[in-house]
Automatic annotation (TrEMBL):
GO molecular function annotation: ABC-type transporter activity; ATP binding; ATP hydrolysis activity
Name of the protein in its database record: ABC transporter ATP-binding protein
Lineage: Bacteria, Pseudomonadati, Verrucomicrobiota, Opitutia, Opitutales
Protein family membership: Belongs to the ABC transporter superfamily.
InterPro entries recorded: AAA+_ATPase, ABC_transporter-like_ATP-bd, ABC_transporter-like_CS, ABC_transpr_TagH-like, Bact_Polysacc_Export_ATP-bd, P-loop_NTPase
UniProt keyword list: ATP-binding, Nucleotide-binding, Transport
SUPFAM superfamilies: P-loop containing nucleoside triphosphate hydrolases (SSF52540)
One family name in Pfam for this protein: ABC_tran
Gene Ontology cellular-component terms listed: membrane
Top-level taxon of origin: Bacteria
ABC transporter domain span: 1-202
Length: 400
């Protein structure tokens, strides 16, 4: 095979088990030598290959951070300057000073990913490493990958998840027994690979229609102090990942309630739930506002957004006070794990159309929080979804 990958490209590598994906990455990383041909690399390479590879199991996490840095050509002093950021990203607490052999697979992956992405590689190789992470950490990893991608890092990404390759990679390569079957634009290669997988299972493959956005909303007040206390710590931990806005009003907590008023992160298709926002301000505030919640894939692809487009609402806050706001939402999505981004927009008093709706072009983002919460849509059957039906016989209609 002959492959040319340019600086800053993200390339997904697809194929069934035994197709040669991991072997190819190990050859590129230099841990295997090709039987024929050669590999030419320009730049520093960091690799996440087999789980735990490159770590000494008897060393602590802290010691392995320095060991990995030394392998990549960094001095101990240079790794010390990066250590706090690595420890914060890995988020394994006191285990950082425990031997790596005591780690779970998820903890080992957290540390490995934190180290390899903190050393500013020119080329990053990722071989299915993210599959063992929980939903919040996967989302944090993809946010980090997009950040280093924007900085010009070339990323080679092996995954069995076609959706991830579509969302994250510009180019893709499909291998079968070491032989390229397709190479080029990621969306095209993914479609070809999906068709082949479907044929192997005796199924027809058809591209799905794009997800339609839906907005369902209603602003009200909800007082549930126990739920507010229970969810606040988790929210604040997730919200650290990313937030934007002028901070005039802040979202202090966010979670979902089911029809029984119980906090939930597991939903069924199109189930209506209540999105609860606890908002506050350090200064007095009196103005119009609108809430929003956006559902994203863990890879950072926006799937749908819910907001109140048809009504105007006024929020009044004393300095240091908090208010509880709610909005009814639905997430008509296929089974899987998703991230929720919450938002609060404010408007001047004259930003109202004659019909009473708010002029969104005059809004200001007060607070936009990535990864406010994580949900799982559970599998469900007999949904009663309607769609086009192909009939072989001709139809005739008559008035009756």
């Amino acid at each position: 095979m002959s492959i040319v990958i340019h600086r800053g490209e993200s390339v997904g590598i697809l194929g069934r088990n035994g197709s040669g994906k991991s072997t190819l990455l190990q050859i590129i990383a230099g841990t295997l030598q090709p039987t024929t041909g050669d590999v030419k690399l320009r730049g520093k390479v960091a690799a996440l290959l087999e789980l735990g590879s490159g770590f000494n199991p008897d060393f602590t996490g802290r010691e392995n951070v320095h060991l990995s840095g030394a392998v990549l050509g960094y001095s101990r002093a240079e790794m010390e300057t990066r250590f706090d950021g690595i420890a914060d990203f890995a988020d394994i607490g006191d285990f950082m000073d425990q031997p790596v052999k005591t780690y779970s697979s998820g903890m080992m992956m957290r540390l490995a990913f934190a180290v390899q992405t903190a050393v500013e590689p020119d080329i990053l190789i990722v071989d299915e490493a993210l599959s063992v992470g929980d939903a919040p950490f996967q989302a944090k990893c993809f946010a980090r990958l997009r950040s280093i991608q924007a900085a010009g890092c070339t990323i080679l990404f092996v995954s069995h998840d076609i959706g991830t390759v579509r969302a994250f990679c510009q180019q893709a390569l499909w291998l079968d027994h070491g032989i390229p079957q397709a190479q080029g634009v990621a969306n095209d290669v993914c479609a070809a690979y999906a068709r082949d997988c479907a044929r192997a299972m005796g199924m027809e493959y058809q591209e799905s229609a794009p997800v339609q956005q839906e907005s369902v909303s209603n602003t009200a007040k909800n007082r549930s102090s126990v739920l507010l206390r229970e969810s606040r710590a988790e929210f604040q931990k997730n919200a650290r990942l990313s937030r934007r806005g002028n901070g005039r009003v802040q979202i202090r907590n966010f979670f979902l309630l089911d029809a029984d008023g119980k906090r939930t992160t597991e939903l069924t298709w199109d189930q209506e739930v209540t999105a609860v926002y606890v908002v506050g301000s350090d200064r007095e505030f009196d103005g119009l506002f609108r809430l929003s919640v956006t559902c994203m894939s863990l890879q950072g692809v926006e799937l749908l957004s819910c907001t109140d487009r048809t009504h105007q609402h006024r929020l009044r806050l004393k300095p240091g006070a908090e208010e509880v706001l709610t909005m009814q939402v639905k997430f008509p999505l296929v089974a899987g794990r998703y991230a929720l981004f919450s938002g609060l927009f404010i408007f001047p008093d004259d930003a109202v159309f004659p019909g009473g709706t708010l002029d969104f072009s005059r809004s200001t983002a007060a607070d936009l929080l990535s990864f406010s919460a994580f949900i799982e849509i559970l599998p469900q059957f007999n949904l009663g979804i309607h769609g086009p039906v192909h009939l072989e016989t001709p139809l005739s209609f008559a008035a009756g």
